[in-house]
Amino acid sequence: xxxxxxIVPVFNEExxxxxxxxxxxxxxxxxxxxxxxxxxxxGSTDNSQELIEKACAAHSGFGYLEFEKxxxxxxxxxxxxxxxETPLTGYIDADLQTDPEDFDLLLGYSDEYELVTGxxxxxxxxxxxxxxxxxxxxxxxxxxxxxxxxxxxPLKVIHTDxxxxxxxxxxxxxxxxxxxxxxxxxxxQLPVRHYPRIAGDSKFGxxxxxxxxxxxxxxxxxxxxxxxxxxxKNRL
Length: 236
Fold this sequence. Notes:
The protein has 236 residues and is of the alpha/beta class. It has a single domain (4-226), classed as Spore Coat Polysaccharide Biosynthesis Protein SpsA, Chain A, CATH 3.90.550.10. 39% of the residues lie in helices and 17% in strands. It has helices at 17-30, 48-58, 73-83, 103-107, 127-144, 160-164, 176-182, 206-226; strands at residues 4-10, 35-41, 62-66, 88-92, 115-120, 155-159, 187-192. It has a seven-stranded mixed beta sheet, sandwiched between helices. The two termini are 32 Å apart.
C-alpha cells in the first residue's frame, strides 16, 4: 500500500502539540501503511517549536519545517506539499477537532480518487462559526461548481504528484477540490467525526471566513481561465 505523509500546520498550538502527537503516534502504530508526520511551524511565537522538536526526537517518522515568520495556513500547506516524498499526502489540523483514525476512511478511496476530503458531521463549533462556514461554502460552490460541502474540513488525502502541481496562492486551501478538477482529477467527500476545540484558540474569524473566500473566488476564476493543463501523447 502507498505510504502517506500527514502534514500538520502549526501556529501557536503549544497546548495541542502533546495531544496531536499522541493521537498521530497511535494511528501510525495501528495503520497497515507506512505513515510519516510532517509538522509545519508557521512562525509560532509560543513554545510550539520546542515541543515539536521534542516530539520529532522521540518518534521515528516525525519531522518538521519551521518558517522564519508567520505566512498563513495556505503557505504552511504548500510547504508541506513541496517537501513530502511519499505517494500520498494527508492534512490535519493540530487542534484535533478531527480524528487521525478517520484517515483510514479516506485512504480506502485514495486509489480511485486523486483527492478524498472529509465532511465534518455534527460540527461542534459555535453557531456563528457554523453559519459563516456554510455561507462561505455556498459562495465557493457557486463559483467553482466543485460539488463539495465542506472544503474547510481539515482532514484530506491527496495524491502527492497532483498536490505538487497546484499553483498555490493565499486562501487556496479552500479550493483544493476545484484545483484537482482543473487537472481532470477525481474528487470524493466522506463524512468524518468532529470534536470541539478543547485547547488553544481558533485562528479564523468571521471576516476571513466570508470576505476572504469571496475575494479568493475571483482569484480562482482568473486562474481557471489561465490554467495550463496538458498530457503528453508521445515522446522521444
